[in-house]
Amino acid sequence: MICSICKKGETSVVDSRPTEDGTAIRRRRLCICGARFTTFERVQFREIMVVKKSGRKSSFDRDKLSKSIYIALKKRPIDTETAEKFISRTSRALEELGQSEISSNTIGTMVMEGLKDLDPVAYVRFASVYRNFREEKDFVQFVDKLDVYKKR
Fold it and tell me: Do residue 29 and residue 84 come from a single domain?
């Protein structure tokens, strides 16, 4: 494993244990430069290709999914463990579809539905990018449709 600090591949595993949901192995590593970092080892059931709106295809990237979810959750009261469980559930759900090609629309909808239950603000943030909101009225129309805010 390459160290993210010194970029050398001379690291050793200090601690290894399964994640809470049992879908990955968490490894604490120590580099010869003294840096410590965590890696995760997950089973990849099959190669999933994401079909973009333009028709272009690319490999499913869990890190890209994770990054977009963390951006939506930024400064929200959701701890890292809860976020990681959500990301793992979403990835697993995509794999369980049993399809080798999945549209980006399917992935976006799945993430939005999950965020709706997890955190309404993160849901709106993700939707604003996913649905490509351009003006304030786009936000207002979207939020007006939410049951969460109608209850208040």
Answer: no
d(CA 88, CA 136): 33
| pLDDT of the residue at 44 | 65
Maximum distance among all Cα pairs of the chain, rounded to whole angstroms: 56
Number of domains forming the structure of the chain: 2
CA angle in degrees (0–180, nearest 5) for 128-104-106: 90
Is the pLDDT confidence value at 134 over 90? no
Question: Range of 34's domain?
Answer: 10-43
CA–CA separation, 99 vs 110, rounded Å?
15
List of residues 6+ apart from 48 with CB closer than 8 A? 59, 60, 94, 95, 99, 100, 101, 102
* Sign (positive or negative) of CA dihedral 96, 97, 102, 104: negative
7-60 pLDDT, tens digit each? 888 899 999 998 877 778 989 999 999 999 988 887 766 789 999 989 999 999
List the end-to-end C-alpha distance of the chain, in Å, as a whole number.
50
> Are 5 and 12 contacting, i.e. CB atoms less than 8 angstroms apart?
no
Higher pLDDT pick, 105 / 149:
105
Residue 152 within a domain? no
Residue 132 within any structural domain of the chain: yes
